[in-house]
Structures are given as structure tokens and as C-alpha cells.
Amino acid sequence: LDMGANLLEWGEYKEAEVVLKNCLKSMNDKDESKNDERIKVLGTMAELDRAQGKYDEAKQRYLEVLKTAKKMNANSEEEVDVSIINSIAGYAEILRKVCM
User: Model pTM?
Assistant: First the structure.
């Protein structure tokens, strides 16, 4: 996840996409992966899509983050994670750009 986020930050989008997709696939293959880790990967992938102008894909990923967070928070008393707040902000940015 960290490598994918760093590649995104450096503008290495294709490489970041490969790393993040592999990370998500690995999580999907393991049933015990934590929702908070999944949220971070999906949020980073949404940022990547948004950075590339793939707003529909980013929107779907942000919505998946929010859906996973809602499910996670229904099962616990944990506080809202920063990655969830970033996902909401990213989703709002997409809506702003699309509606202009």
C-alpha cells in the first residue's frame, strides 16, 4: 500500500495502479484482511483514478470506501478514520468537477 501511495505521489500512475491492484487482489484472496486496510487501498486507488481524470471509476471507489466504512462502523465503536474523511472529500471534488 505504501509503495502504491508513493508511486501515486510521484506521478508514476501506471506503476501505482499495478501495485494497488495487486494489493487489493491479495486482500480479496484473504478473508481475514481488515476493513480498515481495504478502505485505505480503495481510497488510494480512488485518488489515483481522480488524478488521471477517471472520475466515474474514482466515484465508484469512493462509494465503496464509504460503504465499507459504514459496515465497519456498524460493527464497532471506532472513530472515523482519516482515509474515510479523505474519501468523502475526494468524492465531493468529483461531484464539483462533474457538475461544472
Answer: 0.73
Cα of 15 vs its chain's centroid, Å: 16
Residue 93: pLDDT band (50, 70, 90) is confident
User: Taking CA 91 as the corner, what is the angle to CA 88 and CA 93, rounded to the nearest 5 degrees?
Assistant: 110
Residue with cell 484472496: 29
Q: Coil, strand or helix: which one is 52?
A: coil
User: Do 62 and 90 touch, CB atoms closer than 8 A?
Assistant: yes
Angle at 74 between CA 71 and CA 79, to 5 degrees: 100
* DSSP per position, 27-39: HHH-TT--HHHHH
Q: pLDDT band for position 87 (50/70/90)?
A: confident
- Buried/exposed code over 57-66 (b: 16+ C-beta within 10 A; e: otherwise): bbbebbebbb
